[in-house]
Amino acid sequence: MGLGGLKTSWQRQTKDFSHTQGSKYSSLIVDNRGMGESSKPMQRYSTSEMAKDLLEVIDHVGWTAERQLNVVGISMAPRLVNTVGFVENLRNRINLFIPRSLDDQIANVKHNIYTQAFLDAPDTLEYKVQPFPTNGDRFAAQEVAKRKMPQYFNRTGFMAQAIAAGWHHKTDAQLKEIGDKVGRERILVLHGTKDRMITFPHAEMLLNGLGGEESGVRKAFFEGQGHVVPIELRQEFNKLIEEMVEKGKTLNAKA
């Protein structure tokens, strides 16, 4: 999950993969340090240390076989985006702790990560009691609920993550090394052209740094979409993930 986000933000994919197709997929979602149910140590965070946290969890679960995992991340989580992109992300999200009304804070976050068409559309997510009037209402309720649980979301954890994001950087040489080691045909770069959090030019920079489409990296750029394609375009996103999983299995069989 990205900066300031809880693992439950993957609820759509958790349902679609782990439950609806539970006989085919096993999924693991985690809170990054500083958020949710994970520890919130008082120290300087870094994206490399947060990546080690994830590896320790995966080792503990026992998923240690070669080429066993398909890793999906959003925003801060891929840990590949260049520093400028993360600085913009930080600037857009830091409003969470600038003194202003809660309504203003939520309205600003809505603007930064969602398209207006999605916010205005009726809530169609599966529900236990009843749906919200709109997707925007559901998001607002989730944000309010999150902020009422300081054990999950607080200033210390958020700021520590934000500092880690702000210091993150990958050179073209490092991106090339990642492409070489992972295998470019196993990598998907996905972005919305109207993303206000990490603006679209950074997606192109990331794609080119990895070697471009001609090297085998798969590109999925969604015209007019914002920061949270997994939520706004649930079916399209899930289809891409399933295709990448199958591609990985095919490549593993050839290895």
UniProtKB/TrEMBL annotation:
InterPro entries to which the protein is assigned, alphabetical: AB_hydrolase (IPR050471), AB_hydrolase_1 (IPR000073), AB_hydrolase_fold (IPR029058)
Domain AB hydrolase-1: 2-76
Segments forming a coiled coil: none
Chain positions covered by the region annotation Disordered: 1-23
Protein's name in the database: AB hydrolase-1 domain-containing protein
